[in-house]
Amino acid sequence: MRDVSALVRSGLRSCALGVLRGYLGFALRTTRWTFLIDPDALPYVKREDGRTAIIALWHEVLPLTSVLWWWAEPQNPELRLRVLISRNADGRLIADLIAPWRISSIAGSSDTRGKNKGGAAALRQMRASLQRGDHMVITPDGPRGPRRKAQQGVLALARLAGKPVIPIGAASVCLRTRSWDRMVVPLPFGRGVLICGAPLFFGHGKQDTRSTAGQIHELEDALEQVMAICARPDAPQTRALTQGFMRETCFVKPLDVRPSGLWHGMATVLAPVLPFFLRWRQTRGKERAERVREKMGFPSLARPHGDVAWFHAASVGELVTILPLVHACLNRAPDLAVLVTTGTVTAAAMLEQRLRHPRVAHQFMPLDVPRWGRRFLAHWKPQVVVFAESELWPNMLGLCHAGLIPVVLVNGRVSDRTFAQWRRMPKVARRMLERFAWVCARSGQDGERLRVLGAKKQLPCGDLKAAAYPLPVDDAQLQRVRGVIGARPVFLAASTHAGEEEQIIRAAELARRDSPDLLTIIVPRHPERGAVVAAMAGQAPRRALGQVPGPGDAVWVCDTLGELGLFFRLAPCVFIGNSLPGCKGGGHNPYEPARLHCAIATGPLTGNFEEAFARLAPGLCVVDGAQALADWLRSVLTQPAECERLADTAYALATADQDLPDRLAEQILALC
Q: 28-250 has which fold?
């Protein structure tokens, strides 16, 4: 019975909140506002160059001040606003009322009469928020007055954080309640005025010889002055006082956090049929039956206590990118928990192999449906989100922005094709990219493209794939396979695709004229193609079937997952697939074989890793077909010194930027 009563009370409270928020939003949106902002206060209001401030206003005008946020946020999406509220029911009501407008709260007030009201803890939280780049809103006469009499809390915070105080005044066509502060209730279709006065600086010690009482009096006078200006904004005396102020008259409304309303609507409409799509993928082995509901936002694990950093890697390539960064964050923050999401089963399997840590949890990324994303975020409540490479999901980015969760992009990558696509939708691209707290592009070219598309804050470029650890290996398996191969020379074709395996097999046949014992290992990018590749090579043995090459086998098809670390250690010379004319093209990560001291060849189609191949160019060879690949093979097999030189060069270039994960981890943890 108690549960039913609690549910009813919760429902009634939610309905009341919805009505109050709806009315307040309607009244403020239909009011024509005039903004008057002191030129010295304007850089703080817009958070130019990262400047933050304490915004002070009388408690009675608290319902009107959302409009300042609505006006400023579209001009700088990095803005974050927090409001100090009391711990009582009124404070919780205010917090819930403004939360959907992306205004978060800190609970606490001055400790009086021996009661702990959370004042000291709130002061520490507010200082930390200001240092992180948030604005803090404080009502100096709240929560219970006396009306228009400032308390010392504002001064204490200003001194502690070293931030200025900006006095705010506001007025509109309104009614007034009979509460202690005579709080205003705005009426719709009227006119309103909001004024930001000049910043006030309150030092301490020798920096400020004024008494505390004098400083409080100065703050009260500044607040009374801006309130008086609001009462008569067009009077000649007011015009003289506000000469030089920025003046703008307009209607304002809360920022629509959805990067794309069309994408939001389509995802919502398609949501009922997407579970059937997931079940269809499950029948094809692309989803795990016991975890398919994770893609609808249903968690399969409990949220750990404390801060959670969420890293998302769409597939295997992105997972390889973020692993060094995850390790760096775990090492730097002993109490941090990490959630890693992936989009594919293969990436999930690789994570299980490479990262087994008690503070790391894995889930599948929910599809970009608003309701599913809200469910996911409501459970995990991450403090920071890290996306990798080209992961731009409009609805999830909008939900994170609405929830004041900072999102960053590491190893940002924009291919020619992707750049052309987003250029056709510039508004959507801009609204997505400007929501990132910062972006770290993979290369200078990627950074420029991200800037053109709308990324506002970028860190110095850096390729995390160049800073990854060497691929792991099972030492027992390595010794076992070496025993099978013996002294035979080995050539590896890694991550091959349809359209190029025939050329690789032909090149190996030509190379065997000079090296008859040559064993060619072919690792198809997609293991399910193992049977097809084996048939091309005259029914070559397949590792997925437990088969090993005999003395007469020229080709071994290794159609397994997560074993490239083994094969790179077996072969001194490696060809990187998805790069020869005849396949889709784009290349694969060349740093992986380079870090394991391999001589490398590639085809000319390397657009997905253009910067990486350019960096390693002195240590690799570009071939355009079977004959050129065969010529390179003969060269490295018959000239060990040349093979060693190329491997040494590639290794040195691939291991030159190993401190990048630590630098990025520091930036990520600063957002928690």
A: Glycerol-3-phosphate (1)-acyltransferase (3.40.1130)
